[in-house]
Amino acid sequence: MDKKDCLDIFERYISGTASTEEIMRLKSFLENDINLNRWLENHITNASDVIDPNIKMKMLKNIQAQTNYNTIADIPVNKENKGLRFYMKRISNVAAILLPFVILVSAYLYFKPQQTESFEVVANKGEKASLTLPEGSAVTINSDSKITYYSDYNQKERILELDGEAYFEVNHNPEKPFVVNCKDIAITVLGTSFGIKAYKDEDNIQIVLSSGRIQLTTPKEEIEMTPNDRIIYNRKTQTTSFKKVNAEDYTDWRQNRLRFENESLETIMKTISRMHNIDIVFEEPQLKDQRFTGTIDNTSIESVLDAIKLTSSVGYKLKDGIVYLYKK
């Protein structure tokens, strides 16, 4: 009998379909197969730390209940019950044999691989979304972005995935690190507030730290960030650039304010298109390379376009729900 046969018998035992012969085979191997015995003992030993002692006591009581008696000590010694005490001793021996099996079944259920479920929270174009994670950390999700986490979240670690842009307010728990995976990079924190912009159709990933400390891991290096650090990681070159900034400038999209620093008009319009769910057409391609620095009111598509129009040679028109940009 190998491990697979052993687990197969356990499954049938749990479902109540194991035959007496199978159980006796298992018992025989427990007694005679040293390697299998050690393997099973190891599982029992491991299970002893994870199974609640009260549950073990309930198991024993269930076995005792099936014999209609409690313990030998409950029965006084006299001539009339000597035979009964002998019978109860025999029953106790049976219980002693069965109890490891019951504990082992619990260990099997504990160690048997469980299917992991995934959960997704999506903010579509023109929308924002808020998410409170199972342990209380909060996430604000920007337009056209998605957060994915799994059913084992917060068991040993707090791991999730980000596609797009989000702002995180992480509850402090040094025993369970909070990790955000963004394809090429990972951000590990204990308790802090920070923003990540990691859209899959853009080469750059931006990380801005508001408070606390985080560790950024790229394919080439590990960087510890402190408040008001801004790092941009380029997926193509696998390089990073660093700058001290006012973190609020880059996370104020939550309050409908957008900060751009020497950004091309093409990049700015990508952001505006996502956040307002509107198509934008450049009538003259050279306009894409114009660069802008400043903070823009993003309460409406018109407020954004008016700000650009007032500070540049770019004009716009709205027609059939599409924005057309042209040179004034």
From TrEMBL:
<dbReference type="Pfam" id="PF16344">
    <property type="entry name" value="FecR_C"/>
</dbReference>
<dbReference type="Pfam" id="PF04773">
    <property type="entry name" value="FecR"/>
</dbReference>
<keyword id="KW-0812">Transmembrane</keyword>
<feature type="domain" description="Protein FecR C-terminal">
    <location>
        <begin position="257"/>
        <end position="324"/>
    </location>
</feature>
<protein>
    <submittedName>
        <fullName>Putative anti-sigma factor</fullName>
    </submittedName>
</protein>
<dbReference type="InterPro" id="IPR032508">
    <property type="entry name" value="FecR_C"/>
</dbReference>
<dbReference type="GO" id="GO:0016989">
    <property type="term" value="F:sigma factor antagonist activity"/>
</dbReference>
<feature type="domain" description="FecR protein">
    <location>
        <begin position="121"/>
        <end position="214"/>
    </location>
</feature>
<dbReference type="InterPro" id="IPR006860">
    <property type="entry name" value="FecR"/>
</dbReference>
<feature type="transmembrane region" description="Helical">
    <location>
        <begin position="91"/>
        <end position="111"/>
    </location>
</feature>
<dbReference type="InterPro" id="IPR012373">
    <property type="entry name" value="Ferrdict_sens_TM"/>
</dbReference>
<keyword id="KW-1133">Transmembrane helix</keyword>
<keyword id="KW-0472">Membrane</keyword>
